[in-house]
Amino acid sequence: MMVRLLLGSRRLAVGALVLLVVLAATVFTALAASDPFATSETILRGPSLAHPLGTDELGRDVLTRVLHGAATALKIAIAPALVAALVGTAVGLVAGYFGGLVDEVLLKLMELTLVVPRFLIALVAAAFFGGHLWLVGVVLAATFWPSTGRLVRAETISLREREFVEASVSLGASDTWIVSRHLLLLVAPVVAVNSSFQAGQAALIEAGLAFLGVGDRNLVSWGAMVADAQSYLGVAWWTSVFPGIALASVILALNLLGDGLADVADVRGRTRL
Amino acid sequence: MDEGIRESTLTGLGSSPRAAFAAFLLRRLVSGVLLLAVVTAATFLLISLAPGDTAEVLAGQSGADPEYLALIRERLQLDRPLPYQVGSYLRAAAQGDLGFSAIQGRPVRDAILARLPASALLAATALALAALIGVVLGTIAATRRGGAIDAAISLGSLLAYSMPVFWLGQLLVALFAVRLHWLPAGGMRSADEPGGALDVARHLILPGITFALLLAALIVRVTRTATADALGEEYVSTARAKGASETRVVTRHALPNALRPVVTVLTGYLGTVLTGAVLVETVFVWPGLGRLLYDSVLSRDTPMLAGLLLFSAALVVTANLVADVVYRILDPRTRFR
Question: Complex ipTM, two decimals?
Fold first, then answer.
């Protein structure tokens, strides 16, 4: 018990720490007003004092671009997962608690949205309407909530049969009271774990889209940086390695956060990962 | 057909396990087909919502042959109300007619079928590799729960899961192809001396490993949790009490039960093999469906994209069906229920 708690909290701490650093980086870059698109004559130069992480094929400073990429990654990681958590929890609670026809309809709806892989939907949407960050966010939120909903529904169904619900009912508690005061708090840990993993996935998907060239071209994306580096792998490793490390670190931090939370709240194995 | 359905549904109510299984299969089959029909209809609605004339959108290029446009209009009844159009599209799709890709210069179905073998080879390699690594490491972690080995495997799997596949692929190319010249950087066959299974196998190594790593990470985690849970069950204590060796307890009692969630993950990925492979196939220039999808996105090839979307949905539905069936076979309780 103690070992698990300790392990869990350490992962939690590391994940949270990395995310704090990334957050600090975004605030710092927003204040410093450096231009990630500014080109120069010094192209494909290795790490030096002037350019700690080197420059890319257009002479742009890799460090500046990596720092600016953090904002893009954080936005896409947080917003869709948050929306999905709210919508999914609400739908899952209603479907799981009331059951019957409502449950049947909501479950079918959730199944339907899970049939086509979300990366595919995001890819096609980005191809037709342009890969604006908000559009990718909308697609992700729309495809994240059903999995959150299914999870919450399953939790709610198992909680509904427990004695405390019966006790509450016999004390005259209304459905609204039971759902909002009891069940909501009890499903919260699972939702938090799930949302952390979803946030990591969102960052991965945005980077994947940018890597394929259908991302938001007005923003700096680590995925796009890695894609640009493809042609210079033999001569300029730093153009691929540093944005890649940044991306992997943020995703790892989010997954560590989810993993640690799962251990601390003792809900491991109940979410998909 | 109608008689067949009625018969199996009726016998499904009986007590024969085989009839119950048939009824279950039929029920899942029907709901799968319905699900696909809805996805197909939704895809067509999206196409008809796209700006411009639906026939021209489906022709895939502006200024297409008027005769060809007329043919599309007639086939899909585009001059009639929307429900008729959806119906025609559904009927065509049910017959395997997914339209014609002007950019590929052939029917969408043929283009998909032509790319399927390469995708299947890559996916099968990755899935097999991942299942092997994942189940072995996951079981080891579960039997040494709380120890250093468990912690290392858990952290390693989380690390692998967090790795962007396209970046990992790029690093592997940079190291093994560009720097060391050990393996080819991309493609499926060498240009100078093509053919030969060995040549394909050499090309398969890097994309196979890249694709497998992510999957293995997932399987390790699921196997670990499920095996650890199974080891806490009463039947495991019983087996131990009967003097079974620890190896036997794990491999014969705990693992078979733990494999069910693993099957879910594996089949779950079978459905998304197409999308998971887009990034891998793009990095390694692998001539599979993922690469086809990528090319279709870049060229805005509407019929091709719609076809791939439907094909992918069909894969997911089929994979789920397979998962349900394997589940029942692996779980003796459902066999006698």
Answer: 0.87
Distance from C-alpha of B178 to C-alpha of B5, rounded to nearest angstrom: 59
Contact: B170, A233; criterion CB under 8 Å: yes
State the Cα–Cα distance between residues A188 and A92, nearest whole angstrom.
12
Between B256 and B308, the higher pLDDT residue: B308
Q: Of A223, A248, A269, which is closest to B163 when you measure between CB atoms?
A: A248
Q: Is the C-alpha dihedral spanning B57, B62, B65, B70 positive or negative? A: positive
Q: Which of A76, A147, A233, A251 to mutate to test the interface with B (most CBs of B within 10 A)?
A: A233
The angle, 0 to 180 degrees and rounded to 10, between the axes of the packed helices B289-298 and B302-330 is 150
Cβ distance A188 to A231 under 8 Å? no
Contacts of A215 in chain B (CB under 8 A): none
Q: Which of B174, B175, B204, B172 is nearest to B188 (CA)?
A: B204
Q: Which residue has the higher pLDDT, A20 or B17?
A: A20
Selecting from A126, A211, A252 the residue whose C-beta is nearest the C-beta of B166 gives A211
Q: Specify the amino acid at residue B197.
A: A
Rounded average pLDDT over A1-10: 66
CB B294 within 8 A of CB B282: yes
Residue of A nearest to B297 (CA): A127
**pTM for this structure?**
0.85
* Greatest distance between any 2 Cα atoms in chain A: 77
Residue ranges of A 163-222 with Cβ closer than 8 A to chain B: 200, 204, 207-208, 211-214
